Amino acid sequence: MWLVTQGVRGLRVRVWPLLPTLLGTPRALSSLADKMGVYRKMWNPTEPRDWAQQYRERFIPFSKEQLLRLLTQEFHSSPAEKAAMEEFAAHVDFCTLFHYHQVLARLQALYDPINPDRETLDQPSLTDPQRLANEQEVLRAMEPLLAQANFSPLSEDALAYALVVHHPQDEVQVTINLDQYIYMQFWALGQRVGLLPRLSSVGSKRGFFTKLPPAERRYFKRVVLAARTRRGHLVLKSFKDTPLEGLEQLLPELKVRTSIVRRALLNLTLLVSGLVFFVNVGMVVLTDLKMATSLLLLFFAIFMGLRASKMFGQQRSAHALELAHMLYFRSTSNNSELLSALALRAQEEHAKEALLARSFLTRRPGGAHDPPEETSRWLQSEVESWLLAQTGCDVAFNGTRALAHLQALTPSIGRYPSSDFPKLDPLVAAPSESPPGHPQQ
């Protein structure tokens, strides 16, 4: 038994030094801590350093139906061109649906052994090295899907800024211990600067004495998180309408904390009320009951300590409830369901890029017969200018990838589904069964 115990301890000692090898370098937390120290020394930073170079928006801010309608109106006005464009869109839908169904099936098969929400029968438990290796394989398989879904990875510098800087409008503030994490990675799309959507009625924007006006924030329409704690498992989550300074609120293993300003105001309130209580009550006790001053001060200190503990406990409980409601309304998908949502988003972005490439190449005099490099540069420039004029968003369009999508789809174009394609029976709700002993009327 002693040998077995020593062997298990030895395995644990050998596993933790191997974590960087097993996980690659998705997030060097030691380097992250150094960058956090740099931001702590800065005076009131408002955004990460060189943010414009760090983050480029790649998300096309139209749904596929909206984009098809705009392109048809502007590029394909005649009935014949409109019909051809709709036929091409149907072809794209069919081909991308089959392709991303296969991609999702492979990804789900990789993720199933480490899925914490598995509803099927339990499988043999994995060792720490096996689980970590599986997690790394899933993250590698997710990278091309996230790239096609036009998510942009947030840099380590941006994450250091988010973990250090707290926006004054955020009443709920949290703190994390980096030593509890093995890795963390964020991806985002849909950067906006404006008023943050109010997602719940819990809490208020009222300050300690006055009502604070709403402030414009830098936030993202969608954020994907992949994080792993030392005593947990891989956490995959997606959130909406998340401010840059609020990324740390999405992490597991966090603690709610009270801001310095609010702690000072609470202490000041306690001090004033305590002095008033001591002057009005303490003097009477000293005069009438002849109690020793030291004993009275001891009772007073104990009372004030209990009162302070209760007030700070109530404040933390209120902030914890606000955080729970905020995450409830912002969370969109978790773990295995996130993989399905990513596949659907990647499929839609794939289709939008193919539609844009086909429509814009009809305007090019040489079409797609020029060298691919020149054609892709022209396509990227034209689409980016058009999107900027249509939406006001500076979107980085991948002309090379869009051209490859179009070239892969064009040779097999045809109306889909074809006439010989098998048609399944429509889904029909099963008739409800009456409980035993209660026949249907």
Oligomeric state of shown chains = single chain
Tell me the structural class.
Answer: alpha+beta
Strand portion, in percent?
A: 5-15%
Shape descriptor reads elongated
Number of strands: 7
Give the strand order of the largest sheet, numbering strands 1, 2, ... along the chain. Answer: 1-3-4-5-7
Uncertain runs: 1-27, 200-210
Number of discrete helical segments: 13
- Count structural domains: 2
Considering DSSP H and I runs of 4 or more, what fraction of the residues is helical? 40-55%
Distance between the termini: 68 Å
Indicate the mean pLDDT. Answer: 78
Question: How would you describe this structure in keywords?
Answer:
2 domains; 13 helices; 54% helix; Transmembrane protein 143; transmembrane; membrane; phosphoprotein; DUF3754
Topology:
Layout: H1 2-15, H2 19-23, H3 29-41, H4 51-54, H5 64-75, H6 79-111, H7 128-148, E1 152-153, H8 156-164, E2 173-176, E3 181-195, E4 216-229, E5 234-243, E6 254-257, H9 260-288, H10 293-330, E7 331-334, H11 335-361, H12 372-391, H13 399-409
Antiparallel strand pairs: 1-3, 2-6, 3-4, 4-5, 5-7
